[in-house]
């Protein structure tokens, strides 16, 4: 067995690392297959890297319309559990009231750029390759090989960076592009697999490695305007890859279902969902910075409130709360209702949730039913006894152990990422 060099101990912020990556690209020392020169020049301008000309921000096109079926999703999508949005299926948050801490596999939201590939685990291999390995070659692992590493179990949510996107429009009156999720592009599961760090070290991780890029085995993603962006892939800085990332082969005690990455997916706790590449087939380990459309044109913040040309690549999720209640739910007056919901954050566990039944004028504390956990959610409940009929606005506001509290509004970004504002949830009392 090959011995691995010690891992680098520095963990620069993604913003400062990105500036370094961009300077390296400028001097011809970064790989950016599938990313246009124009995009990289725009990012250089945004990051303020010397010598770069700032470019105008291109506005993305309109998002996909809702469809009656989800082409390419294998599992059944009963209406009571899902809202289908193009190639994706959003979990109905109200239906989570019937579930425990973990979201059952059959109710877990699906975000597919193309279609679920149905892969045979016995023929599957993972290729780890690139000039960041000390031998510069490639190493293959079968599923049985992975299962010989120490297994690790971890509770974590996977949440799309665009979860809550439609609220930019319905609550803040702002136009955004992309799938019009409400709050159900999230699920929490118990994942089992192996540490990516163990696999990288076994593959011969070299001292010069800086970026690691997992790539899915699903079909090439072609945008609405016909541009082929290749297979879904997004670089992870080595420091994160060696921290808490798993190669997961089980979800809630079962082999990964086809729609969630069978036989193996990457699981990047607390980070935006696109980092958790499904159906992983290869991982490039690079001695030079890497780019893909998923850390350049997508998954940065663009718009007036952000640096010209875009923010640093998005990493951790924000703080959110959702009621396990239909939109415009009807509630009887003079009855005590035990209302429930969940709150979560990518930075730290949620330690406090306050609720309001008058749109935020008055607040009282909700009862928390789970211990705060980074990368997980807490379930909560609040009793409410409305006295008179009419329209009411419920609101829930979470605070995490890092001191982040949900704001009243979220600064707009054109692709509608990281909505974290307090959601105004309408109900009718009769
Ligand atoms: N991995 C591949 N190969 N293809 C994809 O389309 N979608 C990403 C990520 N991994 C995607 C992928 C996005 S945007 C999200 S939010 C999560 O998977 C969703 O995971 P889920 O479908 O298991 O809920």
Summarize the structure.
By secondary structure, the protein is an alpha+beta fold. It is built from six helices and 21 strands.
> Could you say which small molecules are bound to this protein?
ligand MTE
CATH class of the largest domain: Alpha Beta
Strand sequence of the main sheet, in spatial order? Answer: 4-3-12-7-8
Number of helices: 6
Helical coverage, percent range? 10-25%
Q: Can you tell me the number of structural domains?
A: 2
Quaternary organization: single chain
**How large is the radius of gyration?**
22 Å
What gross morphology would you assign?
Answer: globular
Pfam family, one: Oxidored_molyb
Organism: Streptomyces griseoviridis
Protein name: Sulfite oxidase
InterPro entries: Ig_E-set, MoCF_OxRdtse_dimer, Mopterin_OxRdtase_euk, OxRdtase_Mopterin-bd_dom, OxRdtase_Mopterin-bd_sf, TAT_signal
């Amino acid at each position: 067995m090959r011995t691995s060099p010690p891992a680098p101990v520095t963990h620069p912020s993604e913003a400062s690392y990105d500036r370094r990556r961009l300077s390296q690209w400028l001097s011809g020392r970064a790989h950016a297959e599938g990313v246009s020169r124009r995009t990289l020049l725009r990012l250089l301008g945004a990051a303020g890297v010397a010598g770069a000309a700032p470019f105008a921000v291109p506005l993305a096109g309109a998002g996909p319309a809702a469809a009656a079926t989800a082409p390419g999703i294998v599992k059944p999508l009963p209406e009571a559990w899902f809202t289908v949005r193009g190639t994706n299926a959003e979990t109905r948050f109200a239906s989570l009231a019937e579930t425990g801490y973990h979201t059952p596999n059959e109710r877990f939201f699906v975000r597919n750029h193309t279609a679920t590939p149905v892969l045979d685990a016995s023929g599957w291999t993972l290729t780890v390759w690139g000039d960041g390995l000390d031998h510069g070659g490639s190493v293959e692992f079968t599923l049985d090989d992975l299962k010989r590493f120490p297994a690790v179990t971890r509770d974590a949510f996977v949440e799309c960076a665009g979860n809550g996107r439609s609220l930019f429009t319905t609550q803040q009156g702002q136009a955004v592009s992309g799938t019009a999720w409400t709050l159900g592009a999230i699920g929490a599961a118990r994942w089992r697999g192996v540490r990516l760090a163990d696999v990288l070290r076994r593959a011969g991780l070299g001292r010069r490695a800086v970026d690691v890029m997992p790539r899915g085995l699903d079909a090439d993603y072609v945008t609405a305007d016909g541009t082929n962006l290749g297979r879904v892939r997004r670089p992870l800085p080595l420091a994160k890859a060696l921290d808490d990332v798993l190669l997961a082969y089980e979800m809630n005690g079962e082999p990964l279902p086809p729609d969630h990455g069978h036989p193996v997916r990457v699981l990047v706790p607390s980070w935006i969902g696109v980092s958790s590449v499904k159906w992983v087939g290869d991982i490039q380990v690079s001695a030079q910075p890497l780019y893909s459309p998923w850390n350049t044109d997508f998954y940065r913040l663009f718009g007036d409130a952000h640096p010209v040309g875009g923010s640093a690549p998005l990493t951790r999720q924000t703080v959110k709360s959702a009621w396990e209640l239909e939109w415009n739910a009807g509630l009887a007056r003079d009855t005590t209702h035990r209302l429930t919901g969940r709150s979560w954050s990518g930075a730290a566990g949620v330690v406090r949730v306050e609720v309001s039944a008058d749109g935020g004028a008055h607040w009282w504390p909700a009862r928390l039913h789970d211990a705060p956990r980074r990368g997980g959610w807490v379930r909560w409940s609040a009793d409410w006894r409305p006295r008179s009929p009419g329209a009411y606005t419920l609101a829930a506001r979470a605070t995490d152990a890092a001191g982040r509290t949900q704001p009243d509004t979220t600064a707009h970004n054109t692709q509608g990422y990281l909505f974290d504002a307090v959601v105004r949830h309408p109900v009718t009392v009769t």
